[in-house]
Write a structure and sequence with these properties.
4 strands; mainly alpha; four-stranded mixed sheet
């Protein structure tokens, strides 16, 4: 059922340049400079998601867009299966909190490399929680070091894993001090000796060093901070902005925070310092940027399940939630009924997945400028200097057209993005970038301020229009 819910189609506009990058790496080698734009062509480019791009291209070659959509739905499903395995209270409470986490994280699901971040984070937490519980030795925990190398080649979000390791190291060390000050206080269980805490710290350092084993080298250490501090990205890219709680998608995030606070309030154990740092830090990151909400959901789920189960200590429901109650004996009729419900649910899920796959092509035609690009190529305008809508830069790259700008905001930088916005927002000097770059063609979404200005400008002619796009040429 979660696989069906995770089907998000291929609506992410950045998916197209990721696919083209994956193809470029396979056919031409790893790009150190930009090969796709006309404004930044040949300038240094940190392709930090290169392995995810290769993965996407490989899946596309094998299964097309349908295969790509299914692959990422499966990746998301696997992530929250791992979350349920990390949670306590199997199977009922663990599954319930994992589903809450999935609903919370769904705001940014899609066919995009960021999905690898939540998968790797779920894997890291699975290893760390088992190590803290004593069911995993240091040899097992050491696997996080090569996993960090792998994560750093899939996405620069590897830093989240290193930070989580550091938070647990600092939290466990601080908790040792707190236990000595208040020895009778019933704190949540954690590490109780300095040696495993030291080992956790060494794995943290080892993971950070291992991240440098990538084509971009040690630059990957500072790259995440370069994007996090971008005013243009935070101001104009929706997912980098704070969540809008007028929308139900984001209210689930608020609900999960509330459930966590209530679980701590009712719990029979005081929260561990590492838990407090992780939960509060994740919630704050999600409140600053919607892009971080899925990371909070994955990190907070084990904490919430642990304290929610503790809250039911002594209650008749505790054994059921903890998974220690004996299985109820069911009559033959109830067993048949359960089987019928399960088969019906699977059938509905299969039908839903099929419908979503059949909608892929119509959705692409409604969301991307397929006909407009066909027109550019048929008329020879594709060879001109084109000023394009930011949203459609990735699709133009996919069709082999050099772009003015695209979703690789880190490549263009704040100065250039604000320069681009002078024209896009039709400010007082809107013509300046068009003149400086000798732009001959403008491809824009219908209804933007720029298209309104161009329609009334004697210097520009509207040569194409459909339900999605307008194209202007300099007359």
């Amino acid at each position: 059922m979660l696989l069906a819910f995770a089907m998000r189609g291929v609506a992410d506009p950045d998916m197209w340049w990721h696919l083209r990058t994956g193809q470029w790496i396979i056919e031409e080698g790893f790009p150190k400079t930009d090969p796709f734009s006309l404004t930044k062509f040949g300038e240094p480019w940190v392709a930090h998601e290169w392995l995810a791009d290769v993965f996407m291209w490989g899946v596309y070659r094998l299964g097309g867009l349908k295969g790509l959509s299914l692959a990422f739905a499966g990746l998301i499903t696997g992530t929250f299966w791992l979350v349920s395995r990390t949670n306590v209270g199997k199977p009922y409470l663990a599954t319930l909190i994992a589903l809450l986490a999935a609903l919370t994280a769904s705001v940014t699901w899609g066919t995009r490399p960021q999905m690898f971040n939540i998968l790797f984070l779920a894997l890291f937490l699975y290893f760390i929680e088992r190590y803290r519980a004593g069911s995993l030795t240091i040899r097992g925990l050491l696997w996080l070091i090569p996993l960090t190398t792998l994560w750093a080649n899939f996405h620069s979000g590897y830093l989240v894993g290193v930070v989580v390791l550091g938070v647990y190291t600092v939290g466990e060390a601080g908790q040792m001090v707190i236990r000595k000050l208040w020895p009778l206080t019933p704190f949540t269980e954690g590490l109780t000796e300095w040696r495993p805490i030291g080992q956790l710290g060494l794995v943290t350092v080892g993971s950070l060093l291992a991240a440098a084993l990538n084509p971009n080298g040690v630059h990957i250490w500072i790259y995440p901070f370069e994007t996090l501090g971008s005013p243009a990205m935070q101001r104009y890219i929706n997912e980098w902005q704070s969540p809008n709680f007028h929308l139900w998608d984001f209210r689930i995030f608020a609900i999960m925070i509330g459930v966590g606070v209530l679980a701590w309030t009712w719990s029979s154990h005081k929260p561990h310092l590492a838990e407090m740092l992780l939960f509060a830090g994740g919630a704050a990151a999600g409140l600053i940027s919607a892009r971080n909400i899925p990371l909070f959901a994955v990190a907070a789920a084990p904490i919430i399940s642990r304290h929610l189960l503790s809250a039911f200590t002594g209650h008749p429901l505790y054994r059921i939630l903890a998974g220690t109650a004996p299985d109820p004996s069911l009559s033959r009729l109830l067993r048949w009924l359960n089987g019928f419900i399960l088969l019906t649910a699977l059938l509905i899920a299969a039908i839903w997945v099929g419908r979503q796959l059949n909608k892929l092509q119509p959705d692409i035609e409604n969301q991307f400028p397929i006909a407009a690009v066909d027109y550019l190529q048929e008329t020879g305008l594709a060879d001109k200097v084109i000023f394009n809508d930011y949203t459609y830069g990735g699709y133009l790259i996919w069709r082999g057209i050099p772009v003015f700008v695209d979703g690789r905001a880190d490549l263009y930088g704040d100065e250039f993005l604000f320069y681009y916005l002078k024209t896009y927002l039709a400010g007082p000097e809107w013509q300046e970038p068009l003149d400086e770059w000798d732009v001959e063609v403008v491809l824009m979404r219908r209804g933007t301020t720029l298209t309104t200005v161009l329609t009334t400008s004697p210097a520009w002619d509207k040569v194409y229009e459909d339900d999605l796009i307008q194209i202007f040429t300099r007359n």
